[in-house]
Amino acid sequence: xxxxxxxxxxxxxxxxxxxxxxxxxxxxxxxxxxxxxxxxxxxxxxxxxxxxxxxxxxxxxxxxxxxxxxxxxxxxxxxx
Length: 80
Known about the structure:
Layout lengths: L6 H22 L1 H7 L3 H27 L14
Helix pairs in contact: 1-3
Protein backbone atom coordinates (compact mmCIF):
# COMPACT_ATOMS: atom_id res chain seq x y z
CA UNK A 1 0.00 0.00 0.00
CA UNK A 2 1.29 3.44 -0.92
CA UNK A 3 -0.23 5.03 2.17
CA UNK A 4 2.24 3.16 4.40
CA UNK A 5 5.17 4.71 2.53
CA UNK A 6 4.18 8.28 3.47
CA UNK A 7 6.42 9.82 6.16
CA UNK A 8 3.52 11.63 7.79
CA UNK A 9 1.58 8.40 8.15
CA UNK A 10 4.65 6.75 9.69
CA UNK A 11 5.20 9.52 12.27
CA UNK A 12 1.52 9.68 13.17
CA UNK A 13 1.13 5.90 13.39
CA UNK A 14 4.31 5.54 15.45
CA UNK A 15 3.07 8.31 17.75
CA UNK A 16 -0.33 6.69 18.30
CA UNK A 17 1.16 3.26 18.88
CA UNK A 18 3.69 4.79 21.27
CA UNK A 19 1.02 6.77 23.10
CA UNK A 20 -1.22 3.74 23.60
CA UNK A 21 1.72 1.51 24.54
CA UNK A 22 3.16 3.89 27.09
CA UNK A 23 -0.24 4.33 28.69
CA UNK A 24 -0.73 0.58 29.01
CA UNK A 25 2.83 -0.32 30.05
CA UNK A 26 3.55 2.56 32.40
CA UNK A 27 0.09 2.56 33.98
CA UNK A 28 0.26 -1.22 34.45
CA UNK A 29 3.66 -0.91 36.18
CA UNK A 30 2.83 2.15 38.28
CA UNK A 31 3.41 0.47 41.65
CA UNK A 32 6.74 -0.99 40.56
CA UNK A 33 8.00 2.32 39.19
CA UNK A 34 6.93 4.20 42.32
CA UNK A 35 8.39 1.61 44.71
CA UNK A 36 11.63 0.76 42.88
CA UNK A 37 12.58 3.75 40.75
CA UNK A 38 12.20 6.78 42.97
CA UNK A 39 8.61 7.52 43.92
CA UNK A 40 5.66 9.41 42.52
CA UNK A 41 7.76 12.23 41.06
CA UNK A 42 9.86 9.79 39.04
CA UNK A 43 6.73 7.99 37.84
CA UNK A 44 5.21 11.25 36.65
CA UNK A 45 8.45 12.26 34.94
CA UNK A 46 8.68 8.94 33.07
CA UNK A 47 5.01 9.08 32.11
CA UNK A 48 5.28 12.70 30.96
CA UNK A 49 8.41 12.05 28.92
CA UNK A 50 6.98 9.15 26.92
CA UNK A 51 3.57 10.78 26.56
CA UNK A 52 5.17 13.99 25.27
CA UNK A 53 7.44 12.11 22.84
CA UNK A 54 4.47 10.22 21.40
CA UNK A 55 2.36 13.35 21.11
CA UNK A 56 5.19 15.30 19.47
CA UNK A 57 5.58 12.53 16.90
CA UNK A 58 1.89 12.84 16.02
CA UNK A 59 2.07 16.64 15.82
CA UNK A 60 5.30 16.60 13.79
CA UNK A 61 3.98 14.00 11.36
CA UNK A 62 0.77 15.92 10.83
CA UNK A 63 2.13 19.44 10.45
CA UNK A 64 5.38 18.58 8.63
CA UNK A 65 4.28 15.85 6.25
CA UNK A 66 0.53 15.32 6.17
CA UNK A 67 -1.35 18.57 6.51
CA UNK A 68 -2.83 19.23 3.08
CA UNK A 69 -0.03 17.14 1.55
CA UNK A 70 -0.29 13.50 2.55
CA UNK A 71 -2.49 10.75 1.20
CA UNK A 72 -6.21 11.36 1.42
CA UNK A 73 -8.25 8.31 2.32
CA UNK A 74 -11.63 10.02 2.16
CA UNK A 75 -12.75 13.53 1.29
CA UNK A 76 -16.37 14.37 2.13
CA UNK A 77 -16.42 17.11 -0.49
CA UNK A 78 -15.43 14.79 -3.32
CA UNK A 79 -17.53 11.78 -2.35
CA UNK A 80 -20.49 10.96 -4.53
